[in-house]
Amino acid sequence: MREVAIVSYAQTPMRRDAGANNDVEMLMGTLQEALSNVGMTQKDIDFTCSGSCDYLGGAAFAFVSAVDALGAVPPIAESHVEMDAAWALYEAWLKIQCGKADTALIYGFGKSSHCALPDMLCLQLDPYAMQPLWPDSISLAALQANALLQSGKYTERDLAEVVANSRRNAKGNPKAQLKGDYTVEQLLKEPTFVSPLRKHDCCPISDGASVLIMTTREKAEKLCKRPAFITGIDHRIDAHGLGMRDLTVSTSTRIAGEKAGVHKGKVDIAELYAPFSHQELILRDALGLDPAKTKINPSGGALAGHVFMACGLDRIGAVATSIMNGEASRGVAHATSGPCLQQNLVAVLEG
Amino acid sequence: MSDEKTMVEGFEAPISLHYTFAAGHAISKFLRSMKEGKIVGQRSPATGKVIVPPRGSCPESGKPTTEEVELGDTGTVITFTVVHIPIPNNPVKPPFIVANICLDGADQTFIHLVSDCNNDDVKIGTRVKAVWKDKAEWDYSMDNIKYFKPLDEAPVDIEKLKASRLKEVGKYRHA
C-alpha cells in the first residue's frame, strides 16, 4: 500500500443561500485557496475528482460546467462521482494506490437553495414501490428516529444533547451556519416538526463548496509540517429497501469502521456525517466511540452546516485540519449517502 | 409463459420538482446586456482571450474573469451543419443551418442558427451578421437574435483568423 496524506483543505462558508453565484463562481476561490496553501497550481495535480448531484441544479451534466473552475486546458485527468465527494476521495485514493497518480485534488459542491432538497432526495429511492409515494428525507429519518426511541436505547433528551453539543462546538468553526449556546431544556421545549424530530434535530440546508488535496508520503512531507495520513479507509452499503434492515443500527458503518481499523489506536476526534441528531447516536455506537474519550464533531458536524455532496468530504477535511494543526494525533471521519444512513464510508487519519 | 403476458411493463409516476435558478454573476450580466441588444463578453486575465457568453472563469486557467468587452454582432462561421429533421415544438422548419459562430473580437464560438440564405452558399469562413427580433420582444435571452444572416463579403480563411486572434490576445496577457 502506498502511504497517502492530506496536505490541504479549504471550504467556503456554509450559507443558506449563496445568492447569485453559480457553481463555478462558488468553487473558484476555494480551489485557488486549497492550491495556494501548499504552493501548487493545477499543473501539480495528477488526478482531479469531484462529487456533486445534477438533480440539485436540475440540469443534466451540470457537474461538467464546474470543470471551468479548474484550468483544465490542456485537458487534465478528471473524474466525477454522483455521490458525496468523500467517495470522490476514495476513487482518488484508489488511483494513487494503483500508481496512476501521486497527487490528487478532490472537490465537492452543492447549491441546495435551488430546490426543495428533502423532496428531491425522493429520487434516490427505489423508483417502483417507494419513490412514487414521495417519502421525503425528513419523514424517512423520523421513522428511524422513532424506531430508535422506541427501542429504549436513547431518549429525546439524548437527541437534544447531540444538538446542544453541535451548536456549542460550531462556535469555534467560522464556516458553520448554525451555532450558539442552547440548553437541552430549551431545545426540548421546541415543537416537533416531523415527529419525533424537532427542526433542530434536522441538518440545515446549505450552499457551498470544498476542496482537498492529498499526495504520497514523499511529497506530503515536503509540502506540510504535519500531513494527515489516511491509514485506513473502507465503505459499505446496507440493503436498498428500508424494510430489509434494522434502522436502529448501522451495520455498514460498523463493518467499514472495523475494516478501516478505527480501534487500532486511540481516537482523539471523530467527525460523523449525521444529517439528523439521532443518527449521530447510531453512528457512535456502530463505531464503538466513547464521547468521554473521543471528541465527537468538534466542527459542529452536519447539524451546523450541511453542504449536500460536500458534507462527507468536509468531515475528512475537518479531521485532517485538526491533525495538520496539531490539535489531534488520530481521528476518524465518516461519510454517509442515501436515506437513513444507507451507505457509509469510514476513514482513519493519523498525524 | 402466461406470467410474461401479465408482466407489468410500465406505469405512470410523474415527477414534479420546483427549481429556482441562479445563472451566476457573469451570465446574469451577459443576459442583462442582451436585453439591451448588446453582446458583452469577458476577457481572461491569463490568456487575453475574449469569452462569450462568459461563465465567470477562464476555462484554460481557472482564473476569474472580470474585464468586460462589448462586441459587435458580426462574425464568422467556424463550422456548421444542415439539419433535415424537425426540432419538436420549434418553429424553425428544416432544412436549416446550425452553425458554430465566432463573433469578431471573440475567441470562443457559440452555436446559433444561420438563415435567410441559400443553404448551399454557406461555407466554413462565411461572414455573418445577427438578425435581431423587434426591440419590444427583447428579453434576458440569446433568443433575441433570431438567426445570423450571411454578409455580402468574401469568406475568410479561419486558420488565418485563429492565428491573427492569437497574436492579438497576446497583448492582453497578464499572468
Descriptive account of the structure:
The complex is a heterodimer of chains A (351) and B (175). With 351 residues, chain A is α/β, with parallel strands linked by helices. Chain A contains twelve helices and twelve strands. Chain A starts with a strand and ends with a strand. Chain B has one domain. Chain B is globular. The chains are: A alpha/beta (351), B alpha+beta (175). The A-B interface holds A 18-25, 28-29, 31-32, 42, 55, 57-58, 65, 67-73, 111, 113-116, 119-120, 123, 127, 131-132 and B 13, 15, 17-28, 55-64.
What is the β-strand count of chain A? 12
The Rg value of chain B, from CA coordinates, equals 21 Å
Domains of chain A, number: 2
Average pLDDT for all residues of chain A: 96
**Largest interface chains and counts:** A-B, 35 and 24 residues
Tally of separate helices of chain B: 3
The overall pLDDT of chain B, averaged over residues, is 93
Overall SS class of chain B: alpha+beta
Short synopsis of the structure:
With 351 residues, chain A is α/β, with parallel strands linked by helices.
Features:
heterodimer, A: 351 residues, alpha/beta, Peroxisomal Thiolase, Chain A, domain 1, 2 domains, two-stranded antiparallel sheet, 12 helices, 12 strands, 21% strand, globular, B: 175 residues, alpha+beta, 5-stranded antiparallel beta sheet, 3-stranded antiparallel beta sheet, 3 helices
List the helices and strands and how they pair.
The complex is a heterodimer of chains A (351) and B (175).
Chain A: E1 4-11, H1 23-37, E2 47-51, H2 54-57, H3 62-65, E3 78-81, H4 85-97, E4 103-111, H5 117-120, H6 137-150, H7 156-170, H8 184-188, E5 192-194, E6 197-198, E7 207-216, H9 217-223, E8 228-237, H10 251-260, E9 269-271, H11 277-286, E10 295-296, H12 311-324, E11 330-337, E12 343-350
Helix pairs in contact in A: 4-12, 7-11
Chain B: H1 2-5, H2 25-35, E1 39-43, E2 50-51, E3 67-71, E4 74-83, E5 96-103, E6 110-114, E7 127-132, E8 145-150, H3 158-169
Antiparallel strand pairs in B: 1-2, 1-3, 4-5, 4-7, 5-6, 7-8
